[in-house]
Specification:
The complex is a heterodimer of chains A (129) and B (368). Chain A is an alpha/beta fold and 129 residues long. Chain A has helices at 14-26, 37-46, 63-71, 74-77, 93-99, 113-128; strands at 6-10, 30-34, 51-55, 81-86, 104-107. Chain A has a 5-stranded parallel β-sheet with strand order 2-1-3-4-5, with helices on both faces. Chain B is α+β, with helices and mostly antiparallel strands and 368 residues long. In chain B, a hairpin with a 7-residue loop joins strand 6 (348-351) and strand 7. The chains are: A alpha/beta (129), B alpha+beta (368).
Chain lengths: 129, 368
């Protein structure tokens, strides 16, 4: 059921984070959010999430470190899908994200929340149906 | 005579020779240049003294012999013999002096030349150093500029993300239905935001290409299909202005190697520009294959490009002169397009006979 799917939004910009939370909430997902890498890791240890929207440029840790944390953890690895979001796109970043096990790598400004919801639904398809 | 100055088996210009043969120079221990001056003086003095001694000796000899030898004719013969020796000696001395003088002139010239070469070399080295420094500074400034543009662009994207997201959510009636005016103006906000994003993307592309860090997603692209779709998309714009928009390609084309998103935007920019600068007539899009390149062209019947301005058209922040000046735009579009096409290994150019005579823009891309 869609209602039971939990998403963690890791994003330091409160406007963007709030906007995704509203949109995803309207779509029936359960939302949690973290503003820093430290907070995100704490939440990942405490709760289970089906998907993480991960901002690469966090104030304390590089987003890729969190991605590595998820994908090298036996408990989280398969359960938690990751979509990396960024506005600081460097050469090879997309490839690196994929190599580390992310489902997608998106430049935030190029997608509307509705388009991001589409991506999330595609990623979680096996769980939705 | 002249024996002491004639070098035997030694190069006359070598300083070893001077040092060995010029006792004055050797004993005074002056610098080579100063030594040489003494040397020259010494040579001249030597020659003169030699001549003087020989002359005195000859006169004494004539005097003595004239007492010893009898007979007027013999005396006359001896006197004339020595007189001849003296005359010969005088001329020999003069010519030797000239040779020595020539040698010293040559030597001085050589030394002056060496000095000049040395100082020139030092100057060149200094200037090169200065140039290298200036060059390094320019490179640093260029990097700072690139970093600044890159940072600024990323910083600009963050607020734009929420403007875009929230506007799109409002337009999707996320917070209740909008009335038609609200919808219309909100759509304009959205469009402006998209333009701003594209502009930022262009700026980033330019700085990436200039820094050699471009990120192209190169694929085999059906540029024909791409242009056809674009023409269909832009048809409404031309209809609104009462212009025609022709796409006259019938034959299929080979695929080109390109980043589809970037090339699509170049095609869009060029066709939109053509529409923007045309008030009467219309726009025609065409293709041809030339060698291992596919050439795209968009011809319009618009205001054209003055011939004098054509070489500058693809430069940064270049805006149309004359009538074109009054049409909006940041002047970045063609510069960006040129950068993108060149980074793909193609060329971009314009043909226009002048103002009000329309213009045709071309670009080429290598076939896969």
């Amino acid at each position: 059921m869609e209602n039971t799917l939990k998403i963690l939004i890791i994003e330091d910009d409160v406007l963007i984070s709030g906007m995704y939370a509203v949109k995803l909430g309207k779509e029936g997902f359960k939302i949690d959010s973290a503003k820093t890498g430290k907070e995100a890791i704490e939440k990942l240890q405490k709760n289970e999430y089906d998907l993480v929207l991960l901002d690469k440029a966090l104030p304390d840790i590089d987003g890729f470190e969190i991605l590595k944390h998820i994908k090298t953890n036996q408990k989280l690895k398969d359960r938690t899908k990751v979509i990396v979001l960024t506005n600081v796109s460097e050469k090879n970043d997309a490839q690196n994200a994929m190599d580390l096990g992310a489902e997608d790598y998106l430049v935030k400004a190029n997608f509307t929340p509705a388009e991001i919801v589409e991506k999330i639904k595609n990623t979680l398809k096996p769980k939705i149906y | 005579m002249g024996k002491s100055v004639k070098p035997q088996g030694k190069e006359i210009g070598s300083s070893g020779y001077i040092n060995e043969h010029c006792w004055l120079a050797k004993n005074l221990g002056h610098s080579p240049a100063k030594r040489c001056q003494y040397c020259e003086l010494n040579f001249r003095n030597c020659l003169f003294i030699q001549y003087l001694i020989i002359s005195l000796f000859s006169i004494i000899l004539v005097f003595v012999l004239s007492f010893l030898i009898e007979g007027e004719i013999s005396k006359l013969a001896i006197t004339s013999f020595f007189a001849l020796i003296l005359i010969y000696g005088y001329f020999f001395n003069r010519s030797t002096e000239k040779i020595i003088e020539a040698y010293f002139v040559q030597r001085r010239a050589k030394e002056a030349l060496e000095k000049l070469t040395e100082s020139l070399e030092i100057q060149v080295k200094e200037r090169t150093k200065e140039l290298e420094k200036a060059n390094a500074e320019l490179k640093r400034l260029d990097e700072v500029k690139s970093e600044f543009v890159s940072l600024a662009s990323h910083q600009l994207r963050t607020p734009l993300t929420s403007i875009k997201g929230l506007t799109s959510m409002l337009l999707e009636d996320s917070w209740g239905p909008l009335n038609s005016d609200q919808r219309k103006y909100l759509a304009q906000v959205y469009q402006s935001e998209e333009k701003l994003l594209a502009l930022i993307e262009n700026l980033l592309d330019i700085t990436r290409i200039e820094a050699g860090k471009e990120e192209f997603n190169l694929q085999s692209v059906d540029i024909f299909k791409m242009a056809k779709e674009m023409v269909q998309e832009l048809m409404s714009q031309t209809e609104q202005k009462g212009l025609y928009l022709n796409f006259t390609q019938k034959k299929s084309l080979p695929l080109v190697k390109a980043d589809p998103l970037k090339i699509r935007q170049v095609i869009q920019n060029l066709i939109e520009n053509a529409i923007k600068y045309t008030q009467k007539g219309g726009v025609a899009v065409a293709f041809k294959k030339e060698g291992s390149f596919v050439i795209f062209s968009v011809a319009d019947t618009g205001m054209g490009v003055p011939v004098a301005q054509q070489p500058y058209l693809f430069q940064k922040f270049q805006r149309g002169e004359g009538k074109a000046r009054y049409i909006g735009g940041a002047g970045l579009g063609l510069y960006w397009a040129a950068k993108i096409i060149k980074a793909h290994g193609g060329e971009i150019w314009v043909n226009s006979e002048g103002e009000d005579k329309g213009s045709t823009f071309f670009f080429s891309l290598p076939v896969v």
